[in-house]
Amino acid sequence: MRRNTIVLAASALMLAACSKQAPAPQPAPEVAPPPSPAVAAAPTITPVDVPAGYGYPGDRTEFQAWADTWQIDNITTAAWNLWAGMTSDSGQKWNGAVLPVWETWCGSEEVFSATGCTTLSKPGRRFERPHQFGHVAKLLGKTAKNDEGQVVSFNKFNPPMVKYLNTQQPGPGGVNYNYVSMQSLASLNAAWPAETPISQRTVVEAPYQSDEGSTQGYTGMETKPVIFIVKASGLTPMPLWMGPKASTNAANSTPNTWYNCVLLDPTAAADPAVMPVPATPEQIAQAVASPGLSCKNYWYAPLATIYSFQMNAAEAADWNNVANNSGDSGQGLIASAGDYGVLVGMHVNSKAIKNWTWETFWWQPGKDAPNNFPGSKAGLTDNVAGAWRNYAMCTGWNQTQGNASSKMVVCFNPYLETSSGIPAGQTSNCMSCHGVATVGSPLGGTPEAPVLPSLNYPPDYKKPINFDTDPRYSTFTKTDFSWAIQGDAINLPATSAAAKP
Ligand code: HEC
User: Fold this and answer.
1) What CA–CA distance (Å, rounded) separates 435 from 440?
2) What is d(CA 400, CA 405) in angstroms, rounded to the nearest whole number?
3) Which residue positions in the chain have pLDDT lower than 70?
4) What's the pLDDT score for residue 150?
C-alpha cells in the first residue's frame, strides 16, 4: 500500500515536471544539446530503439526454433548482439556523458502515468527497491530480510513497448482497456465470458514486427537495471560475484554476503580493459567504509571497468530516500551529488519470441565465477564495446533445455534473485516466474490505495508451467509475462482518458 502512495506521489511530481516543459512541439534534435546553465529550456532526451546492425528484432521463426531445440550457442550470440545494440551510443548526452541506447528509454514512473511517455527531460532513473522483493511479502506473508544487499532498481521500456503500454488495447465486450490503470485491468479480468479458454485469458500481446525488406522491424523490450553507488572520493568496495560458496550465505547469496570486493578508483585512468588486481595494503586502507558488506578478498580496478553515471543532487536524494526507507543496510553508504551510480546488473527481455527472450547481465570483470554459474562471458561478441564487455550473462529462452528436455533452465541475476524474499531464487528461471504474471479482480485495498491481485510466484522450479492450460489461470488474466503491468499499474479510474485507443 505504501508503494501505491509512492507511485501516485511520483506521478503527481511527473505531471508537475511535464507542465514546465516548453509547450511548442519542436523537431527532435539528433543530438541533445549539452546541458549548460546558459540554456534555459530543459534538455530533452528522445527515446531511441535498438539500431540496425545488431540482429534486432530478430527472425521470430528462427529464434523460436533455437529456443525449442536449445541451440544455446545461437541463443548466446543473439543475446550478446542485443546487449551490444542496447548499450551502443545513442548520440545523445546527459550531464556531459554519452547515453547508451537503453538509458534514453522511459522508466516505469513515466510510462505508468496519466500522461504516458514520449520524451524525457531527464533519464528515467527513478530508484526504487525492486518490487520483486516486496511482492512476495504481500503475497506469501514472507519478507526479505532488511539487512540484505542494498539493491536499487527501476524498469525501462523501449519505444515500441511504451507505445503498446500507452495505447488502449481491445478486450472482451468490445471495450478498450488501459494497461497502466489498476481499475481498467481489474475490469478486463472481470469481463471474460465464463467459457473463455485459459489460453485466451490474456492481455493483447506486446508488439513484434519483423524486418520487411530494408525496413528494420521492432519488438517490445523491457529492462530492469540495478544500481549501486561509488563515492567520488576514496576507493569504494564493489561486491564481486564468485558463486554462492564465496559468500557468508550459500542459500541466499545476496551481494552484501560476498567475500570478494573490488575497490573501484574514480581517479584511475579510464581504461575499461584493465582487469582487477589484488589490492595493496595501502589501497585497502583507503577503502570507503561499507559496514553492510562481507568483503574478505580485496581487488583493485578503475571505475571505468563498470558503467557509471555521475549523480546530480536530485538523483542522490532519490537514492538515499530508497536506501533509508527500505531499511536496507547493503553498502551502508549515503549518496551525494557527484557520486557515481554504477550498473551492477541488468535484466533484459524482448518479445522476439512468443514467450519472450530472457537474458540477464551482471558485472563480472576478470575471471568468470566458478563453474560459470549461473552464466559467464563466454561467447561475448566483438561488437560489445568498452565496459559493457565486463558483464557476464545467462539466458532463459525456454523453461527447459529445449522442448524435448525435462532439465530445467537455471538463470538468475546474483544481484537480484539471491534475495530471501524470492522463493528458490538460486534455482529459478525468468520465464517460469514471469509466466505467472497476472492480474485479478476485484481490486483489494482501499479506494485510495487499491491493490491489484495476482497469482503467487512459483514456489520452486522443478517442472515447467503450461501457460495455456494451468488451471490456476482460470480466474486471472495473463499480462504477457510482464510483472511491470501488474506491479506498476496506477490508481487511475478506468474512465480516465489517459492512454489513447
Ligand atoms: C521470482 C519471480 C521472478 C524471477 C525469477 C524473475 N523475475 Fe523479473 N520481475 C519480477 C517482478 C515481480 C518484476 C516487477 C517488479 C520489479 O521490477 O521488481 C520483474 C521485473 C522484470 C523486468 C522489468 C519488466 C517486467 O517485465 O516487469 C524485466 C525485464 C525482468 N524482470 C526480467 C527478468 C529476467 C531476465 C529474469 C531471469 C534472469 C527474471 N526477470 C527473473 C519477478 C521475477
Assistant:
1) 15
2) 6
3) 1-42, 131-151, 324-330, 494-501
4) 54
Collapsing DSSP states into helix, strand and coil, what is residue 228?
strand
What span, in angstroms and rounded, lies between the C-alpha atoms of 424 and 419? 9
* Minimal-distance CA residue to ligand 1 atom 42: 132
All residues at 6 or more sequence positions from 270 whose CB lies less than 8 Å from its CB, including other chains? 302, 303, 304
Specify the pLDDT at position 37: 46
Q: 23 and 123 in contact (C-beta within 8 Å)? A: no
Residue 428 CB less than 6 A away from ligand 1:
yes
CA atoms within 13 A on the CB side of 289: 1
Residues in CB range of 391: below 8 A, 6 or more apart:
83, 346, 361, 362, 363, 364, 377
Q: Give this prediction's pTM.
A: 0.90
| Residue type present at position 273 | A
Ligand 1 pocket, 358 CB below 6 A? yes
Which atom of ligand 1 lies at the shortest distance from residue 483's CA? 27
Residue 374: asked if its preceding bond is cis (omega within 30°), the reply is yes
* Cβ-based neighbour number of residue 195 at 10 Å: 5
Beta bridge partners of 341: 229, 309
Instruction: Give me the residues paired with residue 215 across strands.
Output: 212
Residue 136 DSSP code: H
Residue whose C-alpha cell is 589501497: 283
Residue 369 Cα to ligand 1 middle (Å): 22
Bridge partners of 176?
Answer: 170
Contact between residue 378 and residue 85 where contact means Cβ atoms under 8 Å apart: no
- The ligand 1 atom at the shortest distance from the C-alpha of residue 130 is 18
442 C-beta neighbours (distance < 10 Å), count: 12
- Give the C-alpha separation, 206 to 307, whole Å: 29
pLDDT of residue 139: 47
Task: Tell the residue nearest (CA) to atom 30 of ligand 1.
Answer: 347
Residue 153 CA neighbour count, 13 Å, CB half: 24
Alpha-carbon dihedral sign for residues 420, 424, 429, 432: negative
Concatenating the DSSP letter of every residue in 308-319 gives EEE--HHHHHHH
Rounded (5°) CA angle 178-22-88 = 70
